[in-house]
Structure formats: structure tokens, C-alpha cells
Amino acid sequence: MKYTILLFEDEPELRQEIKDCIAFDSVEVYAFESWAQYKEAKIDYVPRLAVLDINLLDMDGLTVFQGLKERYPDIEGIVITGQASLKNAIESLKLGVMDYIEKPFRSKDIRSAIEKCESYKQFRVKNYVVDRQFEESRKKFEAHWGIEFIGISQPIKEINTLMKRVAQADMTSVMVTGESGSGKELIARGIHSMSDRSGAPFYPVNCTAIPDTLFESEFFGYQKGAFTGALSNHEGWFEHANGGTLFLDEIGDMNLALQSKLLRVLDERKVTRIGSHDIIPVNTRIVCATNKDLKQMIEDGQFRLDLYHRLNSFHIHIPPLRERNEDIPVLVNHFVRHFAEMHNKGIVSMHSKAMNLLVNHHYPGNIRELKNVIERAILMCDTNVIKAHHLNFTEQSENGKVQVDYSLESIERETIIKAMKACSHNKTHTAEKLNITRQALNRKLKKHGIE
User: Fold this and answer.
1) Nearest C-alpha neighbor of 366 from the set 184, 191, 160, 189
2) Which parts of the sequence carry 4-aspartylphosphate (predicted)?
3) Same domain? 356 vs 294
4) CA–CA separation, 405 vs 388, rounded Å?
5) What are the tens digits of pLDDT across the range 119-136?
């Protein structure tokens, strides 16, 4: 589809001059001297822009633009006038006109105004897409997780109370601490969902994934031509999250030079894109998370004390899952429902022995590990009950090494399985190999759910 512009100008020479100025290969210009002439015309494409003289043969340009807006709600407008007045300028702004140009004008004034209209339209489209994506992700998040942290233990009850309180103070920075996999981002999303910012974007950033050379361009943005490869204007993360929440995960991995730049923006609440002198105010709430001991890092000279106090206005700590076993059955039931629905399984319950194994596991990977164990069990289970042998507590750690469950329950179960395989599943031979009676073996097979 061509970029279609409607031109309204009652002076023939000026109408042709403007048309020549804005007619490019990708642009289709329809020129009219009046509203009546326009109504008789056939327009091939939906117009994106109208350029209008304020005085036309049958009515004023602002009334024409108002009529166009009723037909094409997304159309933008540029008004041209030889009799500039404050009244007309104010009326133009009320109608949503993007630019107001006085006669005499230069060709580049028209082109500049058109470029401004197009940039604004692209910005609106981008915002619309971001808003839709945010709304969809917010609904999915609340549907599957709710806006509170799941659990019945006293620490989790206190965390949910803290989340609700700090959500109402939507300018306060929040520091969330806890081991890897404990649910720090869920806390951040919950705070955002309960706050007045819930209708604006939640923008997560993993600080470990940002090369130092890209820090400023990603956080603050850049202007077209600021450096080789900057082919268009680029919004930084502070602008993306403007009005909403910027979640800085693993803030402890940010180096000192970058910490000072971040601190300046947090104090001033303003950013300047690379290659630009324009100051852009940002209304962004900061929620950060770390699994490191920042106080120790401050003593070691690895983290700025002033940045720590700026980010740690409100602190929420998540205890590891092994310290709140009473939450495990609640989380297990939640994950079973979630993954059963996701994978179209009819699984509705967890065998008591399987639940016992889950409750007594130490979870080095915290909630993330439990979630992975349940999803795998759902996929492995062919009945409507998850049993002990469907569980696998092996976890792939961040450094690529495999972490294995060394609990006595797990070791005993694996030893029995290996012995059964070595004895071709003969119980008598297996009992002899394990130096136990056959009756004891049967009890252990039943205990561990080994079929």
C-alpha cells in the first residue's frame, strides 16, 4: 500500500508547488481545492496524512480535518495558514493536528512536518504493540501465578503483606534478595501488578547479559547516526518502561563504572540518548534483584554504597524453599494443575509417597527446580496419579554441571533400581545382593514406588 496524503489548497499554483514537494515514489498525493471536490473523488488507499490550508473555497481547513477524522480516525494533520492566530493554533491542537506552518514556508518545512507525523505514527503503533503484548503477558501471569507469592508459611505471608504495602508507594525502589530460582522476578511482577503502574509495561533486564560496551545504548538509547550502525532512533530501557516498572535482575553483576551511570539516572530521573542533547524525563519505578551479598561486595569495593542505599529503599528477602517445607505441597498442587492444563493431561493428584519425597528434598535450585521436577513428572506419567518413580531430582546448574540429589531416600531408591536391573528383576537374587530379606525388599519397593 502506498503512503497516501490528502492535500487541500484553493490556490492552484501553491497547490501544485506543495504537491511537487511531497510527491515521492512511495507517496500517492490527492490534491483538492475544496471539501466538495474531495467528496466526489475516489481514494484508492486509506490516507495517513492530510495537509490543509486554513482557508478553503467552501469551508475552513479545520472543519475539513474534523470531517476527515470522523472517516479516518488514525489520520494525522498539518495545517498551513497565511493568517496565523493564537485561536487557530489552539483549535488545531485540540483537533489533534500535528504541525502548524505559517506562509511563506520552505519546502523543507513541509517535508520536516511530514517526517514528524510519520515518526509519531510509528511511535503510536509501536506503543500499541507493546501495550498489547504487555496486557497479554499480564493476563497470562495473573491467570497462572496470581499477583501474590504462593505459599502458606509465615515468611510468605509476610512477603505478600510487604508486596501490597510497597505497591502503593509506586516511586519507592525495591530490592529483592534470595537464592537463584527462589522467585525474585515473581515478586517484582506481583508488586507491579498490584500498583497503579499495572497498566504500563513491566520491563525485565538481566544485568549479567549486558556487555559493558552496550550498557549506555541499551539503558539510555541513541539517536540515528550517533555511531556506525545506528540506522534509526532507538529508545533505551528507561524509556521503554516509562510509566511502568524496570526490573534489574542480578544487579550485583554490574561493574562499578556502570553503577555510577545508573545512579545518576536514578537520582535525576532523566536520560539523554547517545548522540543527542535532549533531556528526556522518565517516570520509571526500579525493582532490582540479586542472589549476592551486596554488603560484603561494598566492603570489598565491588559495589557502590550510595547505589545500594538508592536501590534498597525497601527490602524483601525470600527464604530458600528448604527452609519452608510447608509451602511445598501448595506449590506442588499449583504446578500440577498448571502443567496438566498446559500439556493436556488429565493428571489430578500426587501419590502420598511422591509428595513425601518432594517435601523432604533439599532443592538447591529452589522453586525453579521444583517446577522443573513437576513438569517432567507430568510428561512421564501415563495415569491420573503421579508416583515416586516419575520424579527426577537431577538439576542442570547455571555452570552446566549436573547437580544430583544425595538424600538417603534418593540413594536407597537408585541402589535398589540398579540391583534389580543387575539381577534381571529377580527379587530373591536382588535381596541377596543387597543383603536384606525378600520381605524387606518388598517393603522398600513399595516405599519408593518402584514397579
Assistant:
1) 184
2) 53
3) no
4) 14
5) 766 666 655 565 565 455
